[in-house]
């Protein structure tokens, strides 16, 4: 024992020495480790069972132990995959390993590790678990931890795609029975990147398997498509599946037994039949559990939006049960899908219909056909995927809607409950304000206001049975209560039984409720059009039998509907008018219908004792008999609504009856659309007949006619036409191509009493004319109508006092022939009056009768052809235009303009027209429309002019030549100008156009005026003249003015200029001589008075006149009318005075350089203070006033022969400054003429015709101061 410490110390020292030697050896050997690389790799291959390669090994010894670095490690896997590492760094802590008796590494890092396996990642039994192979033993047990950097793992996903798992960083910790990992992984595949995930794992190693534990994943915007199973990829055209999620997965005994998923945000899209569907989530949580042998998936709160529509808040659970026995004669086995849901909106599930179609094609077909919508409150479905006909269900819903599917009608606003299975079930349902389409059964959707029903069914190997009980439906216009049963035995005929009570407040809606598949299309067609109104409270429907044998011609079944219809509207034939206000009993028995009523309205007439029978629908014939009475106006419109419209109806449209008629009617109406046969007889008493083609009415029509369809034949009828007696008969015939009407007429009429001519014409006519006529009308069956009329008579007993050429004495024969040929669009009216007068015309028929073109030839032996263009051409004998205007002024043409429309192109030719007290010879007047109005051209011996009557612009009269010299019966006794307008009434400017008159050469009363222009504008009661001009070539007068034609405030104003080079030439042009010779003249005037322009009123005359005459001579004062102008200021009297006093000086004439004067007029009194005659012998200055009303004057005149002294000039200036200046100037020229007289002053007063001139001053000449 004493030596034990020594032994231990020696042993320890030996171990230390050995360890030191070992460490020293390793320090020396490790740097040369790459030399033993082949042997080392062989050892690794024998340990792992896989061949391993490495390009380089390097090692060294550190204080804690050896470090190793290997490059380009590569190994091949048994499934054809590979394993490679670009670089591995290893640092072994020897001391910690000895302490823990397990390899402890300070560093174990794999750089660019590449692991590729061809074994798919699947879930299942232990064979598919993560078995601890040689590699897994190395990584899971031999290493206490390791790190992966920039590594990659390639594997096959459950969908079959190859995925690349990029691992930027991963740390793995191993305990003896626990393995943990944390890091980042990034998944990518052939379709691109699928997102980066954070991964945490905590797994336990039991029996060599990582078979228990949990895995946590967290990812933002990750693509989940690769992780979905292959079935999903094969059956759903998934386009995207991007989600941000967190997930927990529980592994038990190597299998995934459950998990939780939190889908924060994201969505998926997949391709449907016609569109791409989308699904998005918002913090959706789901729990997945495996309940052997199936799976269950539950969502506690459906926070889902599909195709942009959020789902209502609810729960959804799906379960899949593996194949099991689902019953049936073959003990069929099928997988089963179980669905439990609450608060689901069916329309929001449309997007998952493709999935349902893949799970069960039959279910997908039903879903696609019905397109259900509405809210399912609770739903439980157990669907055997390979035996959908064994589906079990239990549900409650509200406001459900779907489209028709086979014999299941469509519906909306459908609420109720459902329980049972496809083979045996019960349905309780209610509907409010809903439509139920049921094609092949009902022609239109049933409009349900309120309905309750209980329906059960049984479908098994014995057949199908459908029962309806407690059916109470209030639909459109109908309330029905009853029940039905439909049986379809497996190997027998079907049978349907119906018993129902029906009431309706609108029989016209009955067609909604005829089951076409049971009653037949023809019957439903007929009844749908026949019953158009009515009420019934106790109608009964009884049906029993095989619906395929309807209508039970051999009593195999029974169908009867008894309908006591009140206030009905019934159409026995679709093309005939319906019967109204009808109380009728309809008894439908199998394929026949018997109807009867005491009375009914046929349009506007009354039918009594009416019977209507359809003995056999197959014979398709309806027989009606009735007595008819009513107004004739209603007969035609009634037949216009029948198949007889083109025959009898067309006749009554052209020959329209009025007044009460009596008839007996028998109708034979085929129901197959063939022509109806109508027979009867009509009696007329004091009726009226409107002949439409002639637009005329026969009154007091009495007689009788019969008809068979459209063939009418009348007895002789009497009537009154245009207030004259008439005999008439008619017949009609249905021809091969047209319906023909023939009417014969005759009478002896007084034209003045027909009531169709204007009163003015009637006053000019007397006598009577015997005539006869024929009317023929052809009415083609498809369109149009043609007719012809011929009238013949002799006007021998007629006397006419109308203007020529229509004047005629009684007893003078005048044969008249009128013909009309036309259709519904136009007719040609031709005729002859006597031997020389022919007329031809074409008329158009429209909304208004329109004369297209016409010609009258007054001296023609044949019918003249129509003009080539639309218009009227009148070739008349000499005419008295005044007489025709007088006739028109009496209203002879007023009714003509309102009844018809006439062309605007009119030509009138006559050798002589007497108008305006003048004869216009060889006159041709043409009126034609233009783009902006109407153009009238007048050419004759006395006129050549055009008048453009423009729309929205002044009328323009261009007169090249006008000679107007009216003959006057007697000369007026006064000098007052005559008015160009009638004086009987006030002139009204209303309707007057603005006008522009341009006359190149105008002659009036034999005098040539030359050029005359004027622009006339009308504004209310005001006529304005602008640009007025009269240019004779010797003088030029311009004028602008205004005539206010306001009653009580009439006013005329004129202003302008009168200019010329020689006043005597200008006057002599009009045949007037003037004492002023060789003088130019310039007159400005501005005058106004309160009367018409042609009636100047001196008392209201106001204005101003500026006159200036050039150098000239005043000769004989009393010459012509011009002397009267000088007399106005008593110039003539003054000149005679001067000639008497100074006859040697003045001689026979008075020469002057100029005459200037300004005169203003105030209320008929003319004033002047600057009239100055600048004469060579003397200057004359005048001032004063002339009263034009009293025709007297008060003037002063100053005559200055010569001025040689300052006093004389001052005296002249005292008269007027202007006169003074003139006198001063004249004194320089005329000073030598008079040596003794300086200034003469005169006072002129008295009447204009005999003025008194008094000399008030004679100032002698004074000698100049020395």
UniProtKB/TrEMBL annotation:
<protein>
    <submittedName>
        <fullName>AsmA2 domain-containing protein</fullName>
    </submittedName>
</protein>
<feature type="domain" description="YhdP central">
    <location>
        <begin position="1"/>
        <end position="1253"/>
    </location>
</feature>
<dbReference type="InterPro" id="IPR011836">
    <property type="entry name" value="YhdP"/>
</dbReference>
<dbReference type="InterPro" id="IPR025263">
    <property type="entry name" value="YhdP_central"/>
</dbReference>
<dbReference type="Pfam" id="PF13116">
    <property type="entry name" value="YhdP"/>
</dbReference>
């Amino acid at each position: 024992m004493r030596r034990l410490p020594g032994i231990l110390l020696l042993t320890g020292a030996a171990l230390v020495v050995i360890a030191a030697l070992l460490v020293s050896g390793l320090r020396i050997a490790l740097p040369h480790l790459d030399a033993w690389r082949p042997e080392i790799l062989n050892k690794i291959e024998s340990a792992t069972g896989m061949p391993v390669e490495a390009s380089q090994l390097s090692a060294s010894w550190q204080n804690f132990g050896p470090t190793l670095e290997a490059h380009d490690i590569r190994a091949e896997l048994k499934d054809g995959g590979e394993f490679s590492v670009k670089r591995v760094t290893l640092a072994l802590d020897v001391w910690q390993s000895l302490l823990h008796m397990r390899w402890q590494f300070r560093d174990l890092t794999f750089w660019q590790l590449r692991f590729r396996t061809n074994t798919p990642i699947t879930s299942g039994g232990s064979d598919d678990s993560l078995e601890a192979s040689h590699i897994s033993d190395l990584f899971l047990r031999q290493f206490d931890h390791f790190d992966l950097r920039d590594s990659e793992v390639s594997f096959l996903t459950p969908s079959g795609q190859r995925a690349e798992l990029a691992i930027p960083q991963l740390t793995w910790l191993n305990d003896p029975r626990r393995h943990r990992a944390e890091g980042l992984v990034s998944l990518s595949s052939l379709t691109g990147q699928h997102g980066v995930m954070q991964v945490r794992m905590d797994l336990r190693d039991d029996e060599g398997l990582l078979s228990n534990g949990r895995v946590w994943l967290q990812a933002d915007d990750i693509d989940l498509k690769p992780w979905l199973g292959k079935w999903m990829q094969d059956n759903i055209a998934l386009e995207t599946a991007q989600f941000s999620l967190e997930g927990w997965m529980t592994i038990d005994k190597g299998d995934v037994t459950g998990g939780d998923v939190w889908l924060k945000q994201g969505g998926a899209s997949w391709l449907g039949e016609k569109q791409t569907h989308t699904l998005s989530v918002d913090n959706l949580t789901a729990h997945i559990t495996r309940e052997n042998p199936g799976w269950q998936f539950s969502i506690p709160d459906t926070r889902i939006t599909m195709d942009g529509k959020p789902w209502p808040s609810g729960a959804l659970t799906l379960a899949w049960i593996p194949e099991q026995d689902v019953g049936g004669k073959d003990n069929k086995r099928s997988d089963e899908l179980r669905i439990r849901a609450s608060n689901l909106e069916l329309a929001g599930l449309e997007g998952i219909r493709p999935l349902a179609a893949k799970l069960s094609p039959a279910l997908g077909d039903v879903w696609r056909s019905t397109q259900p919508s509405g809210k399912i409150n609770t739903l439980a479905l157990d669907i055997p995927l390979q035996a959908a006909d064994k589906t079990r269900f239990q549900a409650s819903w509200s406001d459900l809607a779907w489209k028709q599917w086979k014999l299941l009608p469509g519906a909306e606003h459908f609420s109720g409950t459902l329980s049972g299975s496809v083979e045996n079930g019960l349905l309780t349902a209610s509907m409010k304000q809903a439509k139920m389409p049921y094609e092949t059964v009902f022609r239109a959707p049933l409009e349900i206001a309120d309905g309750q029903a209980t329906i059960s069914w049984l479908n098994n190997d014995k057949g199908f049975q459908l029962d309806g009980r407690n059916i109470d439906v209030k639909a459109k216009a109908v309330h029905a209560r009853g029940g039905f049963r439909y049986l379809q035995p497996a190997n027998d005929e079907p049978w349907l039984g119906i018993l129902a009570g029906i009431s309706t407040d609108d029989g016209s809606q009955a067609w909604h409720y005829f089951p076409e598949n049971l009653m037949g299309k023809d019957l439903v067609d007929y009844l749908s059009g026949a019953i158009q109104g009515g009420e019934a409270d106790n109608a009964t429907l009884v049906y029993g039998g095989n619906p395929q044998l309807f209508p039970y011609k051999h009593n195999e079944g029974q169908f009867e509907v008894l309908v006591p219809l009140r206030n009905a509207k019934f159409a026995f034939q679709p093309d005939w008018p319906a019967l109204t206000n009808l109380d009728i009993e309809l008894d439908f028995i199998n394929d026949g219908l018997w109807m009867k009523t005491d009375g009914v309205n046929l349009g506007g007439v009354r039918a009594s004792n009416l019977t209507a029978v359809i003995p056999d629908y197959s014979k398709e014939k309806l027989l009606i008999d009735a007595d008819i009475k009513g107004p004739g106006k209603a007969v035609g419109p009634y037949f216009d609504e029948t198949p007889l419209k083109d025959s009898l109806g067309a006749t009554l449209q052209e020959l329209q009856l009025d007044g009460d008629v009596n008839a007996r009617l028998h109708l034979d109406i085929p129901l197959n659309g063939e022509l109806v046969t109508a027979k009867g007889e009509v009696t007329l008493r004091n009726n009226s007949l409107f002949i439409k083609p002639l637009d005329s009415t026969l009154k007091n029509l009495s007689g009788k006619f019969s008809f068979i369809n459209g063939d009418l034949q009348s007895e002789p009828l009497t009537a009154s036409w245009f207030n004259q007696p008439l005999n008439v008969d008619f017949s009609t015939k249905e021809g091969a191509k047209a319906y023909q009407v023939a009417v014969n007429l005759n009478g002896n009429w007084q034209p003045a009493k027909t009531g169709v001519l204007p009163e003015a014409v009637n006053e000019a006519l007397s006598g009577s004319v015997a005539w006869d006529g024929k009317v023929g009308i052809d009415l083609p069956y498809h369109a149009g109508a043609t007719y012809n009329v011929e009238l013949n008579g002799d006007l021998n007993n007629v006397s006419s006092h109308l203007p020529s050429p229509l004047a005629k004495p009684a007893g003078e024969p005048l044969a008249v022939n009128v013909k009309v040929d036309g259709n519904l669009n136009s007719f040609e009216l031709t005729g002859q009056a006597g031997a020389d007068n022919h007329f031809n015309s074409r008329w158009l028929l429209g909304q208004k009768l329109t004369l297209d073109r016409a010609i009258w030839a007054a001296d023609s032996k044949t019918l003249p052809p129509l003009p080539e263009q639309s218009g009227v051409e009148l070739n008349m004998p000499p005419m008295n235009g005044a007489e025709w205007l007088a006739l028109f002024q009496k209203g002879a043409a007023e009714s003509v303009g309102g009844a018809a429309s006439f062309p605007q192109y009119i030509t009138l030719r006559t050798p002589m027209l007497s108008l305006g007290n003048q004869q216009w010879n060889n006159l041709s007047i043409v009126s034609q429309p233009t783009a902006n109005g109407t153009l009238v051209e007048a050419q004759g011996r006395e006129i050549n002019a055009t008048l453009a009557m423009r729309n929205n612009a002044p009328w323009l009269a261009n007169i090249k030549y006008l000679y107007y010299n009216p003959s006057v019966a007697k000369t007026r006794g006064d000098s007052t100008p005559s008015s160009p307008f009638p004086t009987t009434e006030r002139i009204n400017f209303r309707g007057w156009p603005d006008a522009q008159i341009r006359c190149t050469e105008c002659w009036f009363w034999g005098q040539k005026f030359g050029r005359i222009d004027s622009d006339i504008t009308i504004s209310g009661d005001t006529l304005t003249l602008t640009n007025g001009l009269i240019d004779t070539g010797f003088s030029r007068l311009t004028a602008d003015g205004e005539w206010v034609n306001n009653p009580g405030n009439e006013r005329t104003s004129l202003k302008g200029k009168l200019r010329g080079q020689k006043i005597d030439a200008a006057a002599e042009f009009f045949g007037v001589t003037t004492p002023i010779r060789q003088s130019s003249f310039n007159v400005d005037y501005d005058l106004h008075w309160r009367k018409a322009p042609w009636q100047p009123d001196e008392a209201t005359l106001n204005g101003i006149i500026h006159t200036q005459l050039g150098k000239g001579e005043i000769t004989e004062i009393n010459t012509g009318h011009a002397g009267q102008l000088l007399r106005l200021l008593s110039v003539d009297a003054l000149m005679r005075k001067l000639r008497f006093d100074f006859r040697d000086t003045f001689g026979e004439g008075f020469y002057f350089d100029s005459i200037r004067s300004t005169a203003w007029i105030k209320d008929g009194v003319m004033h002047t203070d600057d009239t100055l005659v600048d004469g060579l012998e003397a200057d004359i200055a005048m001032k004063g006033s002339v009263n034009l009303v009293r025709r007297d004057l008060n003037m002063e005149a100053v005559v200055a022969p010569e001025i040689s002294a300052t006093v004389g000039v001052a005296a002249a200036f005292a008269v007027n400054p202007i006169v003074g200046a003139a006198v001063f100037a004249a004194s320089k020229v005329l000073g030598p003429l008079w040596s003794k007289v300086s200034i003469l002053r005169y006072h002129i007063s008295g009447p204009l015709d005999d003025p008194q001139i008094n000399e008030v001053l004679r100032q002698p000449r004074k000698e100049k101061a020395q």
